[in-house]
């Protein structure tokens, strides 16, 4: 094997490892907020990271933790709910990344469950101190409008193979 081939393999492996780490981080959000673990959920964000979901803009890790501790969120988890973020499509560019996925919030209703919300999620992430963190997350409901679809298409445009290094 040539030095160039080894370097290429190392670069490809690093990208796969980064993608997997980001996918796992995004997938951990639901279990963390459903368990009510505000500090661990907030630790997914950069200190000054933002989370923009209709009607609620959080501009720091502390505000994300406060959301998980809020009466509204506590009411959801005490009644029974499941936040599920589907598989993420991740595009890594050095120490920055973009990811998109769909999500559903399922809540207990009588003896069963109902989908309370379905949304599109667009994440901007950055690696720092040896790990990935969310710099910005924007979530929009699939309400028939264009905004949710645009979040997904914007992130997916960056993931096309012809645009990847």
Automatic annotation (TrEMBL):
<dbReference type="InterPro" id="IPR032710">
    <property type="entry name" value="NTF2-like_dom_sf"/>
</dbReference>
<protein>
    <recommendedName>
        <fullName>SnoaL-like domain-containing protein</fullName>
    </recommendedName>
</protein>
<dbReference type="Pfam" id="PF13577">
    <property type="entry name" value="SnoaL_4"/>
</dbReference>
<feature type="domain" description="SnoaL-like">
    <location>
        <begin position="14"/>
        <end position="138"/>
    </location>
</feature>
<dbReference type="InterPro" id="IPR037401">
    <property type="entry name" value="SnoaL-like"/>
</dbReference>
